[in-house]
Amino acid sequence: MDWAFLLAVYFVLWWITLFAVLPFSMRAQNEGEEGVTLGTPDSAPEMGKRHVLRAFLRTTIVSALLLGLYMLVSWTSGWSLNDLPVLIPNM
């Protein structure tokens, strides 16, 4: 496998994982200690700098684990992304 290919796979995994991990530990503004920001609904998320940094850290760790799992499977079994089933078979 080429390093550029692995970097591209990691980049795609990182972005997909980011949107999967982002909602975890999210609190609404009415649940927080700071109160509700003027002009926003009570149920709007409370976004702080620490939440985003934690989400980026979680995303990086989970993406690295997924890439490691992909590399382990591809090196031990010989499978690659080309072996994924085709949705529309050639006729």
Could you please describe the fold and organization of this structure?
The protein is mainly α. The protein has two helices and no strands. It has helices spanning 3-21, 49-77. The longest helix is centred in the last third of the chain and has 29 residues, at 49-77. The protein is elongated. The protein starts with a helix and ends in a 14-residue tail after the last helix.
Provide a quick synopsis of the model.
The protein has 91 residues and is mainly α. The chain has 2 helices and no strands.
Q: Give me the strand/helix succession.
A: HH
Q: Gyration radius, to the nearest Å? A: 19 Å
Terminal Cα span: 31 Å
**Amount of beta strand:** under 5%
Q: Averaged pLDDT, please?
A: 82
Shape: elongated
The parts where pLDDT drops under 50 for at least 5 residues are: none
Largest beta sheet, briefly?
A: none
Overall helicity = 40-55%
Number of H- or I-type helical stretches: 2
Structural class: mainly alpha
Count every beta strand, where a strand is a DSSP E run of 2 or more residues: 0
Key phrases:
91 residues, mainly alpha, 0% strand, elongated
Please write out the topology.
Elements: H1 3-21, H2 49-77
Helix pairs in contact: 1-2
